[in-house]
Amino acid sequence: MPAGPGGVRGAGGKGRRARPVARAGWPARLATVLKYLSLVAASVVVLLPLGVVLLTSLKTSDELARGGGPLSMPDDWLNFANYVTAFEKGQMAEAAFNTFVILIVSITGTVFIGSAAAYAIDRFSFRFKKLVVAMFLFATLVPSITTQVTTFQVVNQLGLFNTRLAPIMLYLGTDIVAIYIFLQFIRSIPVSVDEAARMDGASALTVYWKIILPLLKPAIATVVIVKGIAVYNDFYIPFLYMPDQNLGTVSTSLFRFKGPFGAHWENISAGTILVIVPTLAIFLMLQRFIYNGLTQGAAK
Q: Which Pfam families does the UniProt record give (predicted)?
């Protein structure tokens, strides 16, 4: 028996009307619209300050004096005089060298100290082990600003004030987050790997150096990127512990364009762009290592 219009033939020969395809209702469409609106708003919040800084870096002091608002267009889009001034008078080359030295030593030390501490905590049993882990956690809860007076006195008495060793030592001794990142990865490595190596005559140091450390490459990449960006952008520690003009970093060099009666915002903006570009490029190229390292550590 043929089916009627809009129906299908059933087993008993009777026509059956086809069910209409379910369509997404207005709540789903509204949720999609709100999702994209929130993404656009977040993008504007992030990109608007960068756009203002870029526009300001291309303006002259006379253009800034005339006003026109932060989003006004510069008269000359190829005006790079502010970048030359920021690089030369801000001593950006010397500041980049100081930053590079502090960055390399701090990151290298953090990787070895953090991974070794995490290996000792996870693989060895010793008295007050839980207390040590609890103290690490407690240290992350204490704001560093509350201990700056004592820290400054210790650094000064050790003769490290106004030297590159001052920020290096502070960066090495205050990164508890790196220990926890390494700890999450080491816990995912079976203890049987250590035991097999120890049965072959390997010492604990050999196991750490030749077995554990190579397996921590995702964690090392995460720590290097996160720590590197934090050290590169830090202003407080270099400004406080290295006041010498010859020991400036890329962050403190921008402060030289600020005087007691005003600031050269066009030069500061140009210097800010010079400082932002390297970190932005590195982050965009290596961001997958950050997210993969953090998510793998959390999952493991």
A: BPD_transp_1
Strand-pairing partners, residue 28, are none
**Can you give 201-252 as a three-state secondary structure string?**
CCCHHHHHHHHHHHHCHHHHHHHHHHHHHHHHHCCHHHHHHCCCHHHCCCCH
Task: Locate 276 and state its tokens.
Answer: 């932002």
Backbone angles phi, psi at 244, to 5 degrees: -60, 135
| Each residue's pLDDT tens digit, 102-118 | 999 999 999 999 999 99
Tokens encoding 56: 């300001």
pTM of the predicted structure, to 2 decimals: 0.76
Residues in a beta bridge with 263: 258
Q: Are 187 and 118 in contact (CB under 8 A)?
A: no
User: What domains can be seen in the chain, in order of their start residue?
Assistant: 27-79 (no CATH), 91-299 (1.10.3720.10)
Asked if residues 250 and 95 have their Cβ atoms less than 8 Å apart, the reply is: yes
Q: How many CB atoms lie within 10 A of CB 292?
A: 13
